[in-house]
Amino acid sequence: MMKEQSFGASSNKVSDWQAIDWPKVRHHVRRLQLRIAKATRAGKYGKAKALSWLLTHSRSAKLLPVKRVTENKGAKTPGVDNKLWRTDRQKYAAVQNLKRRGYRPASFAPTLHPQKERQAASPEHSHPAGPRHASAPCAGSQTHCGNNR
After folding, report:
1. What is the reported pTM?
2. Can you give the residue range of the structural domain that contains 74?
3. The dihedral of CA 43, 47, 49, 54: what is its sign?
4. Which of 17, 32, 128, 147 is the most exposed place for a label (fewest CB within 10 A)?
5. CA distance linking residue 136 with residue 140, whole number of Å
6. What's the total number of domains in the chain?
7. How many whole angstroms separate alpha carbon 118 and alpha carbon 39?
8. Tens digit of pLDDT for each residue in 14-49?
């Protein structure tokens, strides 16, 4: 049984994630990107803007980043929202939630790591040429090292 693929604006239709024709999706996005570049080079900025709108609203352009994020080597690491998309249903929900407006990530709570205590470096070990100070003049000149004022 052949499944129909839609490449226009997003729809609410949920189908099998594994049945998506990924080469066709990549081709569609790449073709739109090339058309945008071609219109920009030709100076047709209105056309480029219209094609950009098509690209940002197309289902293909929303499917690809979700696939990229969920099937790379960092797929088991949650993002800033602390959410993972593992099942096909979660991936489709992520595609539906990709909108230009209204995106609000969950608040970011940084993880505090205790810092290691560092010993102060002794002056004889701080620089291979020995200690240098901004106030000490360079040998044979009236200016300070690094400050030619």
Report:
1. 0.55
2. 19-97
3. negative
4. 128
5. 12
6. 1
7. 57
8. 568 888 899 999 999 999 999 999 999 999 999 999
114 domain residue, yes or no: no
Does residue 134 carry a pLDDT above 60?
A: no
The model's pLDDT over 95-112, given as tens digits with 9 standing for 90+, comes to: 888 776 766 666 666 667
Q: Do the beta carbons of residue 31 and residue 101 sit within 8 Å?
A: no
The verdict on residue 123 lying in a domain is no
In the numeric block, the tokens 């929202």 are attached to: 81
Kindly state whether residue 14 falls inside one of the protein's structural domains: no
- DSSP 8-state secondary structure symbol assigned to residue 100: S
- Is-contact 98 56, C-beta < 8 A? no
Residue 69 lies in a domain: yes
User: What is the residue type of 12?
Assistant: N
**Whole-angstrom Cα distance, residue 37 to residue 43?**
10
**What are the residues facing 144 on neighbouring strands?**
137, 147
